[in-house]
Fold this protein.
Amino acid sequence: MKTALIYIEENLASSMALRYTSRLANLIDLALQVIHVEEPENKNHFGTGWTRRTWEHGIEEAGLQEVDRLLKTERIDCRFLGSPVVRVGDRDSELLSEMSHHPYNLYIEGRLNTASVRDFYSLLGSRLYRKMTCPSLIVKNLVPIDRVLLLAAEGVDPDQLTSCFSRLFDPESIPVDLLYFHFQENDSPVWEQEHEMADYLNEIITPLADKGWNIEKKQVVRGTPEKVADLLRDYGLVVSTFPTRKCPHYELLAMLPNPILICK
Amino acid sequence: MKMLVPVDTNPYSAVAARKAAKLAINTWADVTILGIQTAGSAANNMPDAALSSAMSAYCKAFLSNAGEMESPYGDGEPAPWRATGNGVWETSIASETAKKSLRLMVKKGSTLDMILEQAAQDGSDFIVIGSPAKVADPGWTGELDLTAKVANKAPCSVLVVKEEKSVNTVMGILDQDHVSQESLELINQMVTVHQAELKIVGLATAKGLDERVEMKMGEVLDYYASKGVKAWITMVKENEMEDFAARAAETSLVGIWLGKKSFLAKIFSKDRVSQLINATNSSVLVLK
Amino acid sequence: MRGKEKTSILLLDDEPIVSKRLKPSLEKRGYEVEAFTDGFSALQRIKERKFDIVVTDLKMEGIDGMHFLTEVKKKFPETEVIVITGFATMQTAKESFQKGVFDFLAKPFKIKEITEVIKRAENRQRERASK
C-alpha cells in the first residue's frame, strides 16, 4: 500500500484533485491522508496565551468544517489513513512538518491550469516543492487516466524518473509511452528518429523492462513548449522529474494542461 | 432549434451562411435566412434583386451541404417571393421531402431592429451572423459595429462568423456566474458538430478567481462530465485575456458567457463584444 | 388515441431540469405526462402501458435513447416518438428517422417549439384514427 498526503481547500482545484485521486486509486493501492492548513497571516488575529489559543482553535474548527464540506460533496471512493488533519500556520512549513513526521509516498494537490507559466514557476519554486522529498502530483485538470507519458528532456535524470515511477505504479497497470522533448524556437513540432536518442531512451526503457514494464510508444519531438504541450493533451498523466532551473522542459511542464507527476 | 441567419450581399455573409448550413444540417434546425433592405433601396414591391439573388445562393448551401445524406430541407428550389406584410417578403423551399423548414425572408427597415424583431418573432434559439474582419470595417449598410450590437442585444446566443477555419477546441470564457441551460446545450452542439474538445476558461481579476465564478466553473465541469464530454479547465488573468483570446482563436471557437455582471466590459474597454471580436480573427460565440 | 381521454406523453431525459421545465408546461396544456430520468424505469413503464407520444433524449447514462425508441416503436408502432438531443449529428438524425421517429429536435429549444411538434404528432394520430 502507498500512502499519499493530499492538500485540500474548499475550491474547484481541490475538488478535481480528490476526484482524480479517486481514479488514481484504481491503479495504485493508495491510502490518503487529507490535510488542510489555515494560514493565520490571512486572518485578523489578536491576543496571546489563552485568547490566542481560543482564536486558533476557532480557525482550526472553521478549517475542519471546510474540509468536511468538500469531502461530503465529493464523496470519493478512497481509503483514508485517518481523519483529516487541519493545521494553523504557514502552509509550506506545516506541510513539510507533516511530511517529515510521516514519510508519505506521494504528495497531491490540485492547481487550476493557468495561461501564465509564472504561476507554475512560483508553485514549483516554493519552499514546499523545493524541500519536499517525495514525488508530487499536481492535478491541473480532471481527465481519465487511461495512458501515462514519461516525459524526458535535457536535465531529466533517467534513473530518478524510472525508479520513482516504478515505485508508485505496478508493472502493466497502465499503458505507458515515452517522449523525449527537444526545444525548438518556432514552427510546428517535428517528430524525430527515435534512434537519435537511443542511448538515453534505453536508460529509461531497460530498467523499466527489467521490472516488467513494456513502453509502447517511444518518440522524440522537437518543438516549442506550447505546441508540444498541446500534442500531449490526451495523456491522463505526464511523469517527469523536478526541474532545477528555468529551461524549456520546465516551461513545457508549466504549459501542460494535464495532471503532472513530478519525480524526486 | 430555431436558427436565424441575417445576411447581406457581402462575402462575409456567404461565409456565415456556409457555417450556418453546416450547423443547421447537423442539428436539423428550422432556419430563417433574413435579408434586410434599407428603406431607401430597391423597388417597393419586390425584394432587391442583388439581395434576393445572394440569398438564393446562400440557400443552396443548406440544400447541398448534407453530402450523400438527404438534406432536412428537401431538394427543391425556393418558391417565388410573396409579400407577407408591408415591406416584408417571404419564400421557402417547396419540397415534399423536407423535414425542417428553410425560410427566406426580406424585410425593409433598420438592420439591427429587423434582426432583433425577427429573432423575437421566431423565438430564435441561435443567431449566426457574418462580420467583416474588424467590426468597424465597412459592411452591414447603415450600422456601425452591427454584429457587436446584435451580439449584445439579441435575446439568444449569437455566433459572429469572421472566416472559415477548422475548429479543434470550443472555448467558453466565464467571468460571472450566470450560465443558462440553453448556453450549455448550445456548447454541446458546437463540440459535437466540430468534433472538438471543450475548454472552460475562468477569467480572474488581480485578486484571483472570483469564488462564484469558480463554483460555476465546477458546475459547468460537472455538467459536461455527466454528458461524457471531456472539458479542460484553464484560468486566465484579465491582463492576459486579449492575447490569450487572439492566440486561442487560431484553432478554437471562442465563446463568452455574457451575464449582467460580466467584467469583460472592463477588459474589452470600449465595448466588450466588439473588442473581443476585434481581438480575434475568427468566429466568436456570444452565449446568453 | 382514445376518445376524449388526455393525450399521454412519456418524457425521458436524464437531465432533471428538462423534465422539470417540460412536464408542468405540458400538463398545463392538458396532457397527461409521466417523466423519467432513467431509461430502465422508462423501459419498464412502456412494458406496462402504452403512451400516445414519447419524447426521449438520445444520449443518456445507462441506456441509449436509440435503443429506447426502437423498443417503443417495436411494441407500439403507432406511438409517435420525438427525439430531443444535445449531441445532434446528421447520422443520428438520419438513424432516428429510419427508426420511424416523428421529429428530431436539437437542444436548445423553446417549450413552444416542442409543444408545436407534439401538436403535430397528435394531429397525425387523429388523422390515422379517423381513417
